Amino acid sequence: MVQNEEIALEDNVKIVPRAPKGVPDGDYKLIGWGIDTTGRRLIDEICQIAAYSTTSQFSQHIMPFADLNPGSRRRHNLRIINIGRYRMLKNLKTNKFVKTKSEISALIDFLNWLEANRGDAKDGIILVYHEFRKTSPGMLLEALRRYNLIDRFSKVVKGFANGFNIAAVKCKNSTKSFSLRVMSRMLLNKEDDFGNAVDRAQASFDVVVYLGQGERPDLNGSETQTVNGNESHINTFISQFVNPVSAEEEEIASFKVLLERQNTFRPVFGALMKATLPERRHASHLRRLLAENNIDYDKLKTAYENSAKTGLEDILKNEVPNAKEKDLTELLEILDCFFDPQKKAVQPKPRFFANQNRRPKVTRQTLNKENDSSLNNNTTETSSNTASSDATPRSETGPIQQIEATPTIVQ
Fold first, then answer.
1. Where are the domains of the chain?
2. Are 238 and 161 in contact (CB under 8 A)?
3. Given pLDDT bands bounded at 50, 70 and 90, which one contains residue 228?
4. Taking the CA of residue 193 as centre, how many other CA atoms within 13 Å lie in the half-sphere pointing to its CB?
5. Alpha carbon of 52 to those of 35, 40, 131, 184, 206: distances in Å?
6. Tens of pLDDT along 76-135?
């Protein structure tokens, strides 16, 4: 399958994305969609949902219960404003408040719009998005599950297609970066920051349709026809990149199990997860290595109680094949120091601030102030000496004693 090919990124890091299962050829309709969220975790909330087709568009803001984290605020240009008992969503670009709805009202409106724009597609709708790290489908399905809307959604939507995977296969000889901004500039000749879900939805749709046009039988035709997203050649091209809704639900279930297993290592990596950002990322990577290989805290504890450090080393070498030697050595040291009561647990490195040992810079203004103060002190001393000399005349031998004038009495 072409989806299993490695994707080379800008920083020379290679990843193997999880291959979509694909759907059989059929009569589908493509719709671009995107969401703005309060974060990128599975428990975060949706604050805007948007969709785009050639005949209609949908956009609705949602008032979340939690505030947007700093990264999402900068990415989406949205912020929650609290005024007394009221919460409002503000667009930081226009500096205006936006109209919002509750999550269930927005999701029902979105489903109604999908059902109205399905058209003649007998086999359903394929939602197209463009993300390097796939988070949108899981967050949407979790929001739908909270209100028991999964069944209604599955009757309309057949699956999800990630434009990033499609671009990675079709454009692998043209560029090393497959982000939406690069694809839009290279294929559509459009420049945008894509901070808004509406812009991302339209660009995702246009990029996939552009790449699908290469599969058209009459590619050398004289006239360019308008694409509606339900053409047979596009459906055949994109069907292999579609992940059905049922497959997405299975991935979410397995991901939740992975998170539960990963959270069992909180006592081991607790101190490291409170350190600087690079150390947190590295500790999260080490913890993820153990969880992905079905290793939890109880298993390591039992191994240490039976065979001490040797038991830990056997588990890491035999059951973590996808780890580097350096990571295995570091994991063994962290676990051994944690379980051994005679050793001190591994602590994060002390934070170092670059300017803490530097002498303060002396500016010209500071020097002028010091010079002025010294001049003032010299002037004060000179004036005090002059005043004392005027009050008490001095000679070579010392101060001259003043003779008091005695009055003359005339008889």
1. 2-68+101-219+227-243, 264-339
2. yes
3. low
4. 7
5. 12, 22, 16, 16, 10
6. 999 999 988 889 999 999 999 999 999 999 999 999 999 999 888 888 999 999 999 889
